[in-house]
Amino acid sequence: MAATLQKIGKGIAYTGAGILGAVALYLGTSFILSRIPVGTRTPPTEGTIEAYILSNGVHTDIVLPVRTSQIDWSEFIPYTDTPASDTTMRYVGFGWGDKGFYLDTPTWADLKASTAFEAMFWLSSSAMHTTFYHEPSEGPDCVRIYLKPADYTRLIEFIKTSFRYDTQGRVQHITGHSYGRYDAFYEAKRVYNLFYTCNTWANDGLKVANQKAALWTPFDSGIFYQYQ
């Protein structure tokens, strides 16, 4: 009996050590790769489009002007999908992420183990969170960037292809869900996981737009490190 318990104890210890080792490897790799920069920061010049990178401390959004000569985002995601329906808002933020996290976890206090497990291991679906703003304010969690028209065109396509569409080619609004009066959720493509998070998506968007970004990061800190 004692020998059996000893074997069980060793098995638990080895399993725990393996889990801790995997977590340490993941965090260490993310730290190193997030410190490796790719791309360059575009200076403000005539014809560039002013945009923002915005974090709420967990998720990174890419915030863009609602209307430019290239696109009117309000025709793609209507103001009327938000509770306020405020057509005076001049900017709109896009954030991709796990649907369960977005809809069922408005705060960390609401996080369930099942939601986290499904999100981490490819078992959930994804959603796009959009938020309208008058104009974001620069600060530690909000950085202004400038996009050349050709780079903005690539970013537009990147964002559009992240949405899931119905049979009529329209975005699929997830009704009855919002964090406030100026945001809405939509069905999205891809599956959230340990290696492709909401911040990885935003980082990839910056890469597509030839902006400064991390080589790879699952965390918002990896993006904002590049803009210190």
Primary descriptors:
two-stranded antiparallel ribbon; 7 helices; 228 residues; 8 strands; globular; 35% helix; alpha+beta; six-stranded antiparallel β-sheet
Write the layout of secondary structure elements.
Elements: H1 2-34, E1 37-38, E2 49-55, E3 60-65, H2 73-76, E4 91-98, H3 99-104, H4 113-120, E5 126-133, E6 142-147, H5 149-160, E7 183-188, H6 198-208, E8 213-214, H7 220-225
Antiparallel strand pairs: 1-8, 2-3, 2-6, 3-4, 4-5, 5-7
Quick one: how many beta strands?
Answer: 8
Tell me the major beta sheet. 6 strands, antiparallel
Query: Mean of the pLDDT scores?
Result: 87
* H/E series: HEEEHEHHEEHEHEH
Summing up helix and strand content along with how strands pair, one would put the structural category as: alpha+beta
Radius of gyration: 20 Å
What portion of residues belong to β-strands?
A: 15-25%
State the distance separating the first and last CA atoms.
59 Å
- The coarse overall form would be globular
Uncertain runs with pLDDT below 50, 5 residues or more? Answer: none
Count the DSSP helices: 7
Helix content, binned percent: 25-40%
Structure description:
The protein is of the alpha+beta class and 228 residues long. It contains 7 helices and 8 strands; from the N terminus they run αβββαβααββαβαβα. The strands form 2 sheets. A 6-stranded antiparallel beta sheet has the order 6-2-3-4-5-7. A two-stranded antiparallel ribbon has the order 1-8. β2 and β3 (60-65) form a beta hairpin. The longest helix is centred in the first third of the chain and has 33 residues, at 2-34. It is globular. The chain starts with a helix and ends with a helix. The mean pLDDT is 87. Keywords: Membrane, Transmembrane, Transmembrane helix. It comes from Hymenobacter profundi. It holds the Pfam family DUF2459. InterPro entries: CHP02117 (IPR011727). The chain crosses the membrane at residues 12-33.
